[in-house]
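Running this now, will post back.
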Amino acid sequence: MKRVFTASEAEREVLEKLWDQKEGIKQSQLLALFEADGKEWKRQTLNTFLSRLEEKGLITREHRIVKPRYTREEHYNMQMKAAIDKMYGGKLSNFVAAFVKENTIDKKEAEELIRILEER
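Update: finished.
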């Protein structure tokens, strides 16, 4: 199973619903949650998204119960790391330099970043 930490918009919607559950959830219950939100997905549509997420290693399905493999925080941290690896040679300093070149940060925010880095 390959690990791909990115998800399409629809796959991310599925992950968000799964993360909102305290436990795993049956696929039929998951479909009902989407229907309650006005999504008119068919069972097969949801199954397609679940299959893709399973192939990417982002969910597990056992005994008709669907669970996310990672927490929301773990998932987004892995996405962030993959993006920094790909776009900035794996160097956080390259990312920060590019970010501050295009975005302004105030003195208070800069001091907070320095504090965080010094704690690490």
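Residues 9-70 form a domain with the Arc Repressor Mutant, subunit A fold (CATH 1.10.10.10). More later if anyone needs it.
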